[in-house]
Specification:
By secondary structure, the protein is of the alpha+beta class. The protein is 35% helix and 20% strand. The protein has helices spanning 2-33, 44-56, 66-71, 75-86, 123-129, 185-195, 251-264, and strands spanning 105-108, 114-117, 140-148, 153-160, 167-174, 202-210, 217-224, 229-233. Strands 1, 2, 3, 4, 5, 6, 7 and 8 form an eight-stranded mixed β-sheet that branches. The radius of gyration is 25 Å and the shape is globular.
């Protein structure tokens, strides 16, 4: 009788502890499947941006000198630029210079900062081949949601000086309807999680100006744990070649948008 009781107790304990172990294994698996990805992880770069912007807060923002920018443009590029402005393909930046009150930084939002890789024609080919985008100061810009003294919402672009490597303000953009210029990082994550399965995780998200419009279109480039690459236009703008903001595309689909854009502009690849 005592032996039977001992066996029963041993069996119960085994089932109990086995069940606990199974539960925790299951919980760990579920936790790994539902790991929340954070776009802006704590970093020295974000701390540097915060320090830089806090010094500007409440003051007029000194933009990068137009003269310096003009010096970097060749005569051929300048002529091409003027021709495109004349054809209304581009709006001259001189007509869009911020007013004095627009330059006052009253608030900024680091939660929705986007680190942008400046595009080139080979962007999609590089992504497809797994070639890392260049983490080089010349090809990176930070886009920071901000507000001015007139309570307008805009985007402040910050880059680095090639000579000093220090942060500098490059431009300010405002939406004509005072709407957000880009999708928020939370909105982007919601789109991704609604698209992927529970078994998939986000491995990495990069932002880049994709070569599908004259001045580039901001897209999120998302790598999934299965190796799949998703590309999502996140810029609130007019789209001409079939793209839609917030829609998930493959690289092949984005290449088709690029082909249509080049064809419309008579650009030879």
């Amino acid at each position: 009788m005592n032996i039977k009781k001992s066996i029963a107790l041993f069996s119960t304990a085994t089932l109990l502890f086995g069940g606990i172990a199974t539960y925790y294994t299951y919980a760990e698996e579920m936790e790994s499947k539902n790991t929340e990805y954070k776009i802006n992880k704590p970093s020295d770069e974000l701390n540097e941006l915060d320090e830089f912007l806090s010094k500007l807060e409440g003051n007029r923002i000194k933009l990068t000198s137009e003269n310096k920018a003009d010096e970097m443009i060749s005569k051929e590029e300048e002529e091409e630029y003027k021709a495109r402005v004349a054809k209304r393909e581009l709006i001259s930046y001189k007509n869009n210079l911020p007013k004095k009150e627009d330059k006052t930084l009253s608030r900024y939002n680091l939660d929705d900062v986007k680190k942008i890789y400046i595009y080139d024609r080979e962007l999609f080919d590089k992504i497809e081949k797994g070639i890392p985008l260049r983490d080089d100061d010349r090809y990176i810009s930070w886009k920071i949601p901000m507000g001015n003294a007139e309570n307008q919402n805009g985007i402040l672009s910050v880059g680095r000086s090639e000579k000093t490597k220090k942060l500098k303000t490059e431009s300010i953009s405002y939406s004509t309807k005072n709407e957000p210029i880009y999708l928020s990082n939370d909105e982007i994550l919601d789109i991704i999680y609604n698209h992927i399965s529970e078994e998939q995780n986000i491995e990495n998200i990069l932002f880049a100006e994709a070569p599908i419009s004259i001045d580039g279109t901001l897209v999120a480039i998302v790598k999934i744990s299965t190796g799949e690459i998703l590309i999502i236009p996140v810029e609130n703008r007019t789209y001409y070649y079939g793209e839609e903001i917030g829609k998930v595309y493959t690289i092949d689909e984005m290449k088709e948008f690029q082909r249509r854009f080049y064809e419309s502009m008579n650009i030879v690849e």
